[in-house]
């Protein structure tokens, strides 16, 4: 359905000199980083640092003040609509609340991207929907409405829909938000299993430290006062060895150091 996936370790997202905000309010300036094929990459930082804004920029829902973003080889800032369509057919998105349409069943929600981006027959779409729901342990749920399932099941259904097109790149916005600790662990293990099993690159926004340490290969740390990235790397290395108190305090659940 999609082109061959990127080779492991090659850049699938390339961000250079990115400045973004809302009107005159700048959230970050001159941000640059790479996301490599096959990794679980997490955007983290305190409230108001621009994590969700950065995710929306990477998906193409917002435009930056300046800078460039290449996703799967396509320039999504200055590129044309044809390029954006090519990108959309190769990515999946799990929104914070699952993003399911309440008037449609779980199975119909998962079928939406297949109906929009492919010319498959209804029978073929139905078979793929069954396969994706089985991946997230929801084989019993295709006929249920979102109102009839739990919060954790909604997240898994949203994940099944994000996986519908066998994407090379998955974006997940606060996947554990609102879940109880056990369900959160189960979702983390599912995300890690899917990453290992499919080789999909995953970009997450989350503030859940336990989730970060369970699933992230690499992180960038945005800081509101610095208006940019103040750390990048393996979150376990940053937790144990960072000399920056802002990073160390955050990753060790310490209150910020106070002088005087």
Structural write-up:
The strands form two sheets. Strands 6-7-8-3-9-10 form a six-stranded mixed β-sheet, sandwiched between helices. The chain has one domain (39-61, 91-251): Rossmann fold (3-Layer(aba) Sandwich), CATH 3.40.50.300. The mean pLDDT is 91. The protein is α/β, with parallel strands linked by helices and 260 residues long. Helix 3 packs across helix 4, helix 3 (106-117) packs parallel to helix 5 (151-162) and helix 8 crosses helix 9. Helices cover 36% and strands 25% of the residues. It is globular and about 55 Å long.
Topology diagram in text:
Elements: E1 11-22, E2 25-36, E3 40-45, H1 51-59, E4 66-71, E5 74-75, H2 81-88, E6 91-94, H3 106-117, H4 122-135, H5 151-162, E7 169-173, H6 181-198, E8 201-205, H7 209-215, E9 218-223, E10 228-233, H8 235-241, H9 245-251
Parallel strand pairs: 3-8, 3-9, 6-7, 7-8
Antiparallel strand pairs: 1-2, 1-4, 4-5, 9-10
Helix pairs in contact: 3-4, 3-5, 4-5, 8-9
Q: Which CATH top level class fits?
A: Alpha Beta
Q: Using DSSP, what is the number of strands? A: 10
CATH architecture assignment name: 3-Layer(aba) Sandwich
Distance between the termini: 61 Å
Largest sheet: 6 strands, mixed
User: Class by helix and strand content?
Assistant: alpha/beta
The total number of structural domains is 1
Task: Please state the CA-atom Rg, rounded to the nearest Å.
Answer: 19 Å
Tell me, briefly, the overall form. Answer: globular
Helix content: 25-40%
What strand line-up does the widest sheet have? 6-7-8-3-9-10
Beta-strand proportion? 15-25%
- Put simply, the count of helices is 9
Average of per-residue pLDDT values: 91
CATH superfamily: P-loop containing nucleotide triphosphate hydrolases
Helix and strand pattern:
EEEHEEHEHHHEHEHEEHH
The CATH topology is given as Rossmann fold
């Amino acid at each position: 359905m999609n082109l061959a996936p990127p080779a492991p370790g090659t850049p699938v997202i390339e961000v250079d000199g990115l400045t973004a905000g809302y009107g005159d309010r700048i959230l970050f300036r001159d941000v640059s980083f790479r996301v490599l094929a096959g990794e679980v990459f997490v955007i983290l930082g305190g409230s108001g640092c621009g994590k969700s804004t950065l995710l929306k920029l990477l998906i193409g829902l917002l435009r930056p003040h300046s800078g460039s973003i290449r996703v799967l080889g396509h320039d999504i800032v200055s590129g044309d609509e044809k390029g954006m369509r090519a990108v959309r057919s190769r990515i999946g998105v799990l929104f914070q609340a699952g993003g399911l349409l309440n008037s449609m069943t779980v199975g119909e929600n998962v079928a939406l991207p297949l109906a929009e981006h492919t010319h498959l027959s209804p029978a073929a779409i139905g078979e793929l929907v069954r396969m994706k729901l089985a991946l997230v342990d929801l084989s019993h749920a295709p006929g249920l409405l979102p109102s009839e399932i739990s919060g954790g099941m909604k997240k898994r259904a949203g994940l099944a829909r994000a996986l519908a097109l066998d994407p090379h790149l998955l974006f997940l916005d606060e996947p554990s938000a609102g879940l109880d600790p056990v369900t959160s662990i189960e979702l983390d293990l599912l995300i890690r299993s899917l990453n290992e099993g499919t080789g999909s690159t995953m970009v997450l926004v989350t503030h859940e430290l336990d989730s970060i340490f369970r699933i992230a290969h690499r992180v960038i740390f945005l800081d509101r006062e610095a208006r940019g990235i103040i750390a990048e790397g393996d979150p376990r290395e940053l937790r144990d060895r960072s000399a920056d108190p802002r990073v160390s305090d955050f990753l060790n659940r310490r209150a910020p150091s106070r002088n005087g």
